[in-house]
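Consider the following assembly input.
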Amino acid sequence: MIKAVYKTRQQDLLLSFLKQTKGSHFTAEDVKNHFAGMENPLGTATIYRQLEKCVADGTVLKYFIDEKSAACFEYIGETSPNDDEPPHFHIKCEKCGTLIHLDCSELSHLQAHLKESHGITLNPRRTVFYGLCAECEEKNNSPEK
Amino acid sequence: MIKAVYKTRQQDLLLSFLKQTKGSHFTAEDVKNHFAGMENPLGTATIYRQLEKCVADGTVLKYFIDEKSAACFEYIGETSPNDDEPPHFHIKCEKCGTLIHLDCSELSHLQAHLKESHGITLNPRRTVFYGLCAECEEKNNSPEK
DNA sequence: TTGCGTGCAAAGGTTTTGCATGGCA
DNA sequence: TGCCATGCAAAACCTTTGCACGCAA
């Protein structure tokens, strides 16, 4: 959800767009283009500012395909309303793009360890792991290139 | 090693810098600054071009932290040709922007666990954890806002 | 001499920021 | 009314590229 003191027309528009995209990713430019022809386009600055808020509150994930291209966003909605959510991380497959939601005790352990031994407070909402999902890893190792 | 048909003064300078940095990371700007006051500064383009070559031949690793910050490089020298580099990860402080270089067995455990139990092959070169470093966390909790 | 490396400056693209305006409560 | 969000344009940022020059072999 977009946290705001009050809601604006732009925030509603963005949210409706986000809901449409569920399960796929988009760039800031995609958002801009989506509203470009309409009678109520969204300013670039507004798009970035609103998306940043969403990233901060965890309803949208931000990740990078490569250093050259624009940032990718993906709407994941409200994972859990309260702040004591079980640490649930996201893993982006670098090959097929699948976003894996992983709720695993090892991750909680890591989180606790980083806190206790290194003083580091991990932010699960923002952290995106990159790697290969099982399917792509298998394909990678199979004979056919 | 910097592969080149022949060696230039700039390539020697860069290599000497790389050797000094072993074990830590740096940006293209760091390289530039390092040579800035000297009688033989290195041009930005040269730095990028040479670093890119090093990345290509595997003596330097390149990390994409996020789209805003500059790319991070790390000199690993000529390692064994196989890919058994010790997995170390990076943690970016959301507040002060520090990039923490963390080589911790818990991370290797996590990596192994993701592989064995979930089939996920983690990519340590791209995965960046977000959170708060110890200093910023402390500041966050102290009374003065 | 030949050709690649160099370096300056400009371009490139994405994201942020300044500031005046307008809308929500 | 007060304040925050908006939006335009300009700035900021890192990185790449064009082109002429210089150095290595």
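Chain A has a mean pLDDT of 85. Ask yourself how this observation constrains the way the partners meet.
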